[in-house]
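Morning run. Coffee first, then this:
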Amino acid sequence: MALIVQKYGGTSMGSTERIAQVAKRVAKWARAGHQVVVVPSAMSGETNRLLALARSWRPAS
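And here it is:
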């Protein structure tokens, strides 16, 4: 048995179909008896959107 760490983000998390594929992959490793740690990251385009929001933010006077 191994400890497996997997990170998914971007296009891997870009749609419900892609997320389902990730879940199947994770379940396969778990069924094989491994300990699995999953690190989800932002969906496709979200990091850029959040950066743009942060850049446009101005504190109240």
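Strands lie at 3-10, 35-43. Good start to the day.
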